[in-house]
Backbone:
């Protein structure tokens, strides 16, 4: 055999030996090694190294930098607990399950086993798929119905007023990430200067009304308005009364719900004796306790 061919064969043998030493074998010991390494990286919050231990299918869904960013914002799945590796149980040659215990320092709990698969990269973890598929990193990850990626990495309606295209709902609520007519009173026009429930209204209490129309009433179809009717419809549910009067009149007697034939559709102080303080056993017409 020519010396040149012998030289190439020697190189090939050396390469195969070296390469075979780099490839992880599908043994239980190697599966245990990966399972332990995963627990260590997770405990250390080393998310870059953790990423390398997932199966290729998961890594194809989100690149490493995005994965690290997502976990850092969403928080570790450990939730301030310690993870303790217990064992690996083989399921054939190319599949296994890793078992762990979570410890808070006081209490311990077993967690569902983590799936391991032997891949072209060796043993890899098939778990925590939500960290690859859920939420968003950029707006392009979102849909037409929820087009913006929030600071919490969730697809939402809006993150600023500029995202609100509806002329009647021009202001973005930074908590709910929804467009509303108003968030603050200054968002409202002069004829409806008060923001209540993300809508502009004329008044919330009598003191909001001018002297010529001194009563703030809830008028069906119009909402809260100032008028001259001291017995007008001022509420349709209890929350309306709490807004108007606080703890002084907490209940809406809508359609005589609590007290028949008196103060219908108005706010009342008490519904029955159970609303009265100790020593006052009777609720009189919803107005006071004796």
Residues:
């Amino acid at each position: 055999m020519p010396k040149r061919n012998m030289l190439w064969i020697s190189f090939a043998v050396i390469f195969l030996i070296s390469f075979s030493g780099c490839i992880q074998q599908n043994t239980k010991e190697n599966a245990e090694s990966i399972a332990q390494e995963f627990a260590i990286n997770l405990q250390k919050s080393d998310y870059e190294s953790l990423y390398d231990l997932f199966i290729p299918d998961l890594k194809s869904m989100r690149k490493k930098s995005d994965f690290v960013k997502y976990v850092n914002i969403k928080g570790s799945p450990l939730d301030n607990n310690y993870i303790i590796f217990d064992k690996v149980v083989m399921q054939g040659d190319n599949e296994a399950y890793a078992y762990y215990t979570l410890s808070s320092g006081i209490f311990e709990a077993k967690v569902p086993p983590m799936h391991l698969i032997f891949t072209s990269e060796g043993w890899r973890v098939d778990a925590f798929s939500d960290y690859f598929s859920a939420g968003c990193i950029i707006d392009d990850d979102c849909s037409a119905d929820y087009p913006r990626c929030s600071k919490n990495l969730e697809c939402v309606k809006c993150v600023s007023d500029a995202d609100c295209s509806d002329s009647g709902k021009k202001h973005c609520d930074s908590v709910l990430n929804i467009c509303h007519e108003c968030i603050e009173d200054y968002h409202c026009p002069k004829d409806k200067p008060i923001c209540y429930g993300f809508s502009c209204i004329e008044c919330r209490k009598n003191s909001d009304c001018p002297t010529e129309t001194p009563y703030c009433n809830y008028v069906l179809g119009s909402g809260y308005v100032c008028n001259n009717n001291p017995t007008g419809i001022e509420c349709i549910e209890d929350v309306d009364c709490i807004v108007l009067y606080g703890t002084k009149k907490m209940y809406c007697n809508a359609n005589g719900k609590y007290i028949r034939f008196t103060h219908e559709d108005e706010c009342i102080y008490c519904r029955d004796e159970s609303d009265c303080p100790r020593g006052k056993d009777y609720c009189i017409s919803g107005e006071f306790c004796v």
Remarks:
- The longest helix spans residues 3-22.
- The two ends are 118 Å apart (CA to CA).
